[in-house]
């Protein structure tokens, strides 16, 4: 078989065995719609609740949390950072439990536990209690995002995942919008039952999470090979599609070789550092957005409601950009473009004096930050071949990325609020510039490597590196000369 025939067959794209069958038939599209219907609504809802329960502390802060709990100065920032320390620590153990207990039960169980913890956030009465409960919240929420990304890999082919991840991540932006409306409404309950408005924010939103978690035990999907909502022919077709496209349809025995391969791959580190740059701005903006808006001169109740438009714009920006990214089958230019939009937003915040212009800057920053994160989080899942290597790559991306989140929440300290967080905003621009450099590196290197592999195979259609059996190809993973990166 010639190189062009191999490419059309699909092996050049995935690095696996040639398979001439067309997996984009009307029947396949119907199957995908069925999968989408069973996966996206419930998983996106769970992530919306997860992001709501971790970020509503920003709404509670401007409603009096720090004052009532006597959390002085930058100790509030420490409370935020503790969440991410716990999140990073328990991410891998939680994903191991996912494999052991089945996502149909494990993810709803996590949702139930963090819902209970969220309720308890409204019951703490001192700084120590706040620190402890934020640690528990990070521990219980740690497994949802990486678990869902893994579930997507056992239902969708490589090029089908990234816009699903983006739709799923759009739940984070919707959480910000939804949270602003809820915080405004719940804040009016101040004094009801002898509790402050900020306490009711945690309690009622936590109760919402608990209620959804109960239903989730019947709605969250299990592994694709035993999904009862698929007929036997549908399951067989789904697994065949995965086997033809990637390694997701194969059983890979754990070997330390693949772990070392991940740690020795410069691209894996680049994906991690890319998220590091974007995670800094994602969590500093989402957690401090009500405070930033209030600092522009708006009253507390207005600040709560005024978080809704920028977060709503971010959600629409995600979905519109991912549509274009899918249409043109490129990631890097849109990630870089999103970073530039966010930088413009921060520059507007820093340089303008009028609150209306600064509020417009908030919109630009939110749209760019959320869109960039939505696109980059699926990138290693599409480009890292080998189940173990990919699992390590995703874990590294989230872990190193969330270290950026820790830095972000620690830098937005109260002493900088007098200048409307000018210094933290400048540092945020620096992180975004760093992300642009990393994304450009990934784009340039992978494009050049794709062209190099094309040239080698066009020069010698029977190159010895190309003529290897399936086991060798899978061991080579994305280093196999027939593999093509999604740029």
Keywords:
mainly alpha, single chain, membrane, disordered N terminus, globular, 487 residues, Growth Hormone, Chain: A
Provide a quick synopsis of the model.
The protein is mainly α and 487 residues long. The chain contains 21 helices and no strands.
**Strand segment tally:** 0
Would you identify the CATH H-level superfamily? MFS general substrate transporter like domains
Category by helix and strand content = mainly alpha
What is the makeup of the main sheet?
Answer: none
Low-confidence stretches: 1-20
How far do the termini sit from each other?
26 Å
Q: How many helix segments? A: 21
* Global mean pLDDT: 85
Q: Could you tell me the radius of gyration in angstroms?
A: 23 Å
Portion in strands:
under 5%
> What is the overall silhouette?
globular
At CATH level 3, the topology is Growth Hormone, Chain: A
What is the CATH-assigned architecture? Up-down Bundle
| SSE topology string | HHHHHHHHHHHHHHHHHHHHH
Organism: Rickenella mellea
Subcellular location: Membrane
GO molecular function: transmembrane transporter activity
Keywords: Membrane, Transmembrane, Transmembrane helix, Transport
Question: How is the secondary structure organized here?
Answer:
Elements: H1 3-9, H2 11-14, H3 26-61, H4 65-68, H5 75-101, H6 103-121, H7 127-141, H8 144-153, H9 158-187, H10 197-219, H11 232-245, H12 256-263, H13 266-294, H14 300-305, H15 308-328, H16 332-351, H17 355-376, H18 379-383, H19 387-411, H20 422-459, H21 470-476
Helix pairs in contact: 3-6, 3-8, 3-9, 3-10, 3-13, 5-6, 5-7, 5-19, 6-7, 6-10, 9-10, 9-15, 9-17, 12-19, 13-17, 13-19, 13-20, 15-17, 16-17, 16-20
